[in-house]
Amino acid sequence: NAGVMQNPRHLVRRRGQEARLRCSPMKGHSHVYWYRQLPEEGLKFMVYLQKENIIDESGMPKERFSAEFPKEGPSILRIQQVVRGDSAAYFCASSHDPGTEAFFGQGTRLTVV
Amino acid sequence: GEDVEQSLFLSVREGDSSVINCTYTDSSSTYLYWYKQEPGAGLQLLTYIFSNMDMKQDQRLTVLLNKKDKHLSLRIADTQTGDSAIYFCAEVGSGNTGKLIFGQGTTLQVKP
């Protein structure tokens, strides 16, 4: 049973480009969470999704950021027109039910140059 | 609002015990977690404790929970150099969605 898979592990984008981060949850998990870790800081919650639904996006920046978790395929975190301040590690976690143990992926480290 | 606070740095000698402290604000949290992050890696769940427990022991790890003071600690016995990492405590946020509220992380440095 593979763990939570995130790709790419490292992503470099120029200012103004789009970044697409992918997360495949553990088998049997239908709850996905995205977190952002800025340098030297803890993880901050961004968004919680179930299949085809955004349940809680209270941590998402109002502009340029969007997330989806389609019926088939991985969850996608999309950042449009990236800026230097978007440089961070983005972690995905999945769980079988909300509030039960969440398993984290290895993260995608985004660098905006 | 929800907030989790940790001290930022702890240095110990190999073989000593390490105690990492954490305070949280949401008294309704049902679970409290400790995660370990090694450089460049993801988060590894170390242990967790139910809010109706005072203590949980798992091999070299002991978690103590003081609900009255909203204080959580992680004790690592016989600390090894491989324990050097960043340790995060986390509480389950409000709203029953399972989102986690993390502290800033405590960097544990183990000296040989």
Secondary-structure blueprint of this entry?
The complex is a heterodimer of chains A (113) and B (112).
Chain A: E1 5-7, E2 10-13, E3 19-24, E4 31-37, E5 43-50, E6 53-56, E7 65-68, E8 75-79, E9 88-95, E10 103-104, E11 108-112
Parallel strand pairs in A: 2-11
Antiparallel strand pairs in A: 1-3, 3-8, 4-5, 4-9, 5-6, 7-8, 9-10, 9-11
Chain B: E1 4-6, E2 9-13, E3 18-24, E4 31-37, E5 43-50, E6 55-58, E7 61-66, E8 71-76, E9 85-92, E10 100-102, E11 106-111
Parallel strand pairs in B: 2-11
Antiparallel strand pairs in B: 1-3, 3-8, 4-5, 4-9, 6-7, 7-8, 9-10, 9-11
| Fraction of residues in helix of chain A | under 10%
**Percent range of helical residues of chain B:** under 10%
Number of helical elements of chain A: 0
Low-pLDDT segments, ≥5 res of chain A: none
What proportion of the residues of chain A form beta strands (DSSP E)?
Answer: over 45%
Total number of helices of chain B = 0
Number of strands of chain B: 11
Walkthrough of the structure:
The complex is a heterodimer of chains A (113) and B (112). Chain A has strands spanning 5-7, 10-13, 19-24, 31-37, 43-50, 53-56, 65-68, 75-79, 88-95, 103-104, 108-112. By secondary structure, chain A is mostly beta strands. In chain A, strands 2, 4, 5, 6, 9, 10 and 11 form a seven-stranded mixed sheet that branches. Chain B contains no helices and eleven strands. In chain B, the strands form two sheets. In chain B, strands 2, 4, 5, 9, 10 and 11 form a six-stranded mixed sheet that branches. Chain B has a five-stranded antiparallel sheet with strand order 1-3-8-7-6, with no helix packed on it.
